[in-house]
Amino acid sequence: MPEVRLERDGGVTTLVLDDARRKNTMTPELGDALAARVLELKKDPDLRAVVLTGAGDAFSAGGDLSMLERLRQASFAEARAFMMGFYQRYLSLTELPVPVIAAVRGPAIGAGLCVALAADLLIVDEDARLALNFVQLGLHPGMGATYLASRKVGAQRAADLLLTGRRFTGRDAVAWGMALEATPAEAVLPRAQALAAQIAENAPLAIRALKSELGLDRAALLTALDREAYEQAVSYGSADLGEGLRALTEKRKPVFSGT
């Protein structure tokens, strides 16, 4: 079973998404494990900062394709409700009262990148393969993509990345303001932990207040998630998603019909 490992170093806690065999693919089980760790940390009065990373050579390869296939068989109402619960598992991360730093080494694709964007700060592998590639699968974006991307890089760049689904690198992410720093892959986690330790040295009450003041607009995020769950449920009933998943399996370019 996938797990989320917790490693403590003083007031800094590192959470490790650990399903390395599948490149930390986002499953309900991994989401449950993350939500349980978040609940545990919310009760810790000594917590000062959190680093989120992935085990192995990937942050997250994105959504579980077998889960998408199962959702194609679900009713619209079932799919919509499932997606809201799925988002909430992973975005429980935003409920932590202290700063969260995402340490992205290797690929962060689709919903996996969205979870990184939900962090307060992002340190990224300079050669990381990044993408918000939902539309290339025939799927409407989810996991807060429509809100988080715009918040990080502005409306025009977010529209570009969401409408094309194109890949980009960690260097690009820094140039666009999506990430704070890009480093060689082996330096990503140490740099994120050093930044977390620097934050942890400061006054806890002030840091927690700043986390709230600088953080995302929860009402806006919830509105985006509700709309995304609706549109993703529509996508699950479409021929386009089936074509996108087949094309991915067959390693070819999809031919979408708009149905």
From TrEMBL:
Database matches in PROSITE patterns: ENOYL_COA_HYDRATASE (PS00166)
InterPro entries on file: ClpP/crotonase-like_dom_sf, Enoyl-CoA_hyd/isom_CS, Enoyl-CoA_hydra/iso, Enoyl-CoA_hydra_C
Pfam families linked to this entry: ECH_1
Domain of life: Bacteria
GO MF annotations, alphabetized: catalytic activity
PANTHER family associated with the record: EG:BACN32G11.4 PROTEIN (PTHR43459:SF1), ENOYL-COA HYDRATASE (PTHR43459)
Family per record: Belongs to the enoyl-CoA hydratase/isomerase family.
Record's protein name: Enoyl-CoA hydratase
Organism: Chondromyces apiculatus DSM 436
